[in-house]
Design goal:
The chain folds into two domains: 181 residues, Ribonuclease H-like superfamily/Ribonuclease H (Nucleotidyltransferase, domain 5, 2-Layer Sandwich), CATH 3.30.420.10; 63 residues, no CATH class. The chain contains ten helices and five strands; from the N terminus they run H-H-E-E-H-E-H-H-E-E-H-H-H-H-H.
């Protein structure tokens, strides 16, 4: 079966009775389901891609790509956001020690994010991470619904870090890498307490911006940061425990 035919089979779930429909998440859900479907459809080297740090007001966005051995389920592998920091570090260590696990990382800093916007920076990071893999994947699963231009067939999976082992592994790698970077930034700029919130727009972080202004690693194109730079008061409704990505987009329109 040629690559194009295999790709059609994978997308439609028709070749060799491959069922490629999204499955409801359950505790017993097989995180290797999608990887196994890809193997049945004729692919042999499958990667997962995920990012960490798309929504924060400060610091980089980190993208990881990971190729896992399908015959080695990793106990505890799951979406990095659902794991404790200790468990993420343990799994990162396990992944980095195994010779049959291949992963790569790309980091786009706050300046690049401001230059091309966070969406384009994330797509660029995906491309770079895939390109840096030592092995060349012939199929890629990507978390979310943003699809970069890649040289091989790929499929986006919303909540993919809860559905695909490869994406879950990439999620852990990206999250741990970014958290470590934010720890270094915390030591450089302790006034903003990056150690605690990792740059996300928590109530404490917004109050730190009001008190100290912006740090050298804040994303100047993001609403609350830009407002601070323009010496305007932070809108009261922005003082939330945690701001989601939709709210950040809405804040981009504030002047």
């Amino acid at each position: 079966m040629d690559s194009e035919s295999a790709n059609i089979a994978l997308e439609q779930g028709t070749e060799k009775n491959v069922d490629f429909e999204d499955l409801p998440f359950k505790d017993s859900f097989d995180l290797y389901h999608y990887e196994k479907c890809a193997l049945k459809a004729g692919y042999s080297c499958i990667a997962g891609v995920d990012e960490a740090g798309r929504g924060p007001l400060a610091g980089p966005v980190v993208v990881a790509a990971c190729i896992l051995p399908v015959d080695f389920p990793i106990v505890g592998l799951n979406d990095s956001k659902l794991l404790t920091e200790k468990k993420r570090e343990e799994l990162y260590h396990l992944l980095s020690q195994r010779e049959d696990v291949n992963f790569s990382i790309s980091i786009l800093d706050h300046e690049e994010i401001d230059r091309i916007n966070i969406y384009q920076a994330t797509l660029k990071g995906m491309q770079l991470a895939v390109r840096k893999l030592k092995k060349r994947p012939d199929f890629i699963f990507i978390d979310g619904n943003a699809s970069p231009t890649l040289r091989c067939p790929h499929k986006t999976l919303v909540d993919g870090d809860k559905k695909s082992a490869s994406i879950a592994a990439a999620s852990i790698i990206a999250k741990v890498t970014r958290d470590r970077l934010m720890l270094k930034y915390h030591k450089m700029y302790p006034s903003w307490n990056f150690l605690k919130h990792k740059g996300y727009g928590t109530k404490e972080h917004l109050e730190k911006i009001k008190l100290h202004g912006v740090s050298p690693i804040h994303r100047k194109s993001f609403g609350p940061v830009r407002i601070s730079l323009e010496n305007k008061k932070l809108p009261k409704e922005l003082l939330l425990e945690q701001m989601d990505w939709d709210m950040l987009n809405r804040m981009e329109t504030l002047k």
